[in-house]
Amino acid sequence: MGLERIAIVGTGAWGTALANALARAGRRVTLAGRDQTSADAMARSRASQRLPGHPIDARVAVAATGAAVLSAQDVILLAVPSQHLRDAAGRVAPMLGAGIPVIACAKGIERGTHMFMTQVIAECAPAAVPAILSGPSFAEEVARGLPAAVTLAAGDEAMAAALARALGSATFRPYHSTDVRGVEIGGAAKNVLAIAAGIVAGRGLGASAAAALTTRGFAELFRFGRALGARPETLTGLSGLGDLILTCSSVQSRNFSLGIALGQGHSPAQAQAATGLAEGAFTAVALVELARQAGVEMPIATAVAAILDGALGVSDAIENLLTRPLRAEG
Q1: According to the 3-state scheme, what is the secondary structure of the chain?
Q2: Selected residue with higher pLDDT from 205 and 330
Q3: What is the pLDDT of residues 151-179, one digit of tens each?
Q4: Of residues 54, 86, 190, 266, which has the active-site annotation?
Q5: Do 208 and 141 meet the contact criterion of CB atoms below 8 Å apart?
Q6: Cα R_g (the chain), whole angstroms
Q7: d(CA 251, CA 181)
Q8: Cβ(265)–Cβ(198) under 8 Å?
Q9: Helix axes 180-202, 299-308, angle to 10 degrees
Q10: Quick one: pLDDT at residue 1?
Q11: Mean pLDDT of the chain
């Protein structure tokens, strides 16, 4: 498949980092801004406000999202937050030819509809081929060209493999899969669990508690994934366990940093204002509601959702988790 021309819709940190990584790999890359004014400004400055200190590669074209840009592409990446992906998919849909791959680069579940990102793409852009890119990767490191491995999933194996080759390089390595839902579940659930890990760090509960939280959090992720049909090897792979380990252990993760602020006593509003956009804060309620519908118990994720909604204080949430009945591990 000829997949050399790639457009990235979204000029934030992740979109900019992906653009630089793909340009280094020799692809023809266009970074598409929301409007002409912002695109012109970025084209002049060669910088994204969301990724300071990392100039946009000179080989990356910067333009406004429009028919002239998107209709000439082989692949579209939607590098926008999960709760804005519906708007982005709807805007690009009229400009797409039939069978064009549209890859979601967000990790989350849409609030209200409980849809995963590829489901949103399929609904808004029915002519597109939905795919998902997820895994343990920080934008700043990818922008610098440091090694990272992720998972790229599409329903058709040949398409998934072709997309992985199109986006891959020596330092940015997508492993391909057809387990679309499993990849999406890992990315969405780990963001919520990373907030819990941050709370443990913010409260100073120690390394033992952090290890216990991450392990029991993964058990929740695994139960949820299996209930929704995900493959075990996906959940224990890069986009599941791998991404959970990364985001539960580094302040580069906004979700982990949000949890630290909550653990230190800041209100949900104060914590979110201080840390910026943390996908897990918007996914938590949708994840818990979807788990409840599937009959899956997720006490850690449920506690995070309650804390973020102001229904439960951090101290009470910790006490509730520590006083749960002892049971067999599983």
Answers
A1: CCCCEEEEECCCHHHHHHHHHHHHCCCEEEEEECCHHHHHHHHHHCCCCCCCCCCCCCCCEEEECCHHHHCCCCEEEECCCHHHHHHHHHHHHHHCCCCCEEEECCCCECCCCCCEHHHHHHHHCCCCEEEEEECCCCHHHHHHCCCEEEEEEECCHHHHHHHHHHHCCCCEEEEEECCHHHHHHHHHHHHHHHHHHHHHHHCCCCHHHHHHHHHHHHHHHHHHHHHCCCCHHHHCCHHHHHHHHHHCCCCCCHHHHHHHHHHCCCCHHHHHHHHCCCHHHHHHHHHHHHHHHHCCCCHHHHHHHHHHCCCCCHHHHHHHHHCCCCCCCC
A2: 205
A3: 999 999 999 999 999 999 999 999 999 99
A4: 190
A5: no
A6: 19
A7: 27
A8: no
A9: 70
A10: 59
A11: 96
pTM of the predicted structure, to 2 decimals: 0.96
Tell me phi and psi for residue 103, to 5 degrees: -105, 120
**Confidence band for 195, pLDDT divided at 50, 70 and 90:** very high
Tell me what the mean pLDDT of segment 76-93 comes to.
Answer: 97
Q: What is the pLDDT of residues 225-247, one digit of tens each?
A: 999 999 999 999 999 999 999 99
Dist. CA 5–CA 72, nearest whole Å: 8
- Please check the confidence at residue 35 and state whether its pLDDT lies above 90: no
**254: closest CA among 272, 242, 269, 266?**
272
Tally Cβ neighbours within 10 Å of residue 53.
8
Burial (CB < 10 A; 0-12, 13-18, 19+), residue 186, is buried
Residue 15 Cα distances to 51, 99, 191, angstroms: 10, 22, 19
- Whether 190 is catalytic: yes
- Please, which pLDDT band fits residue 278 given cuts at 50, 70 and 90? very high
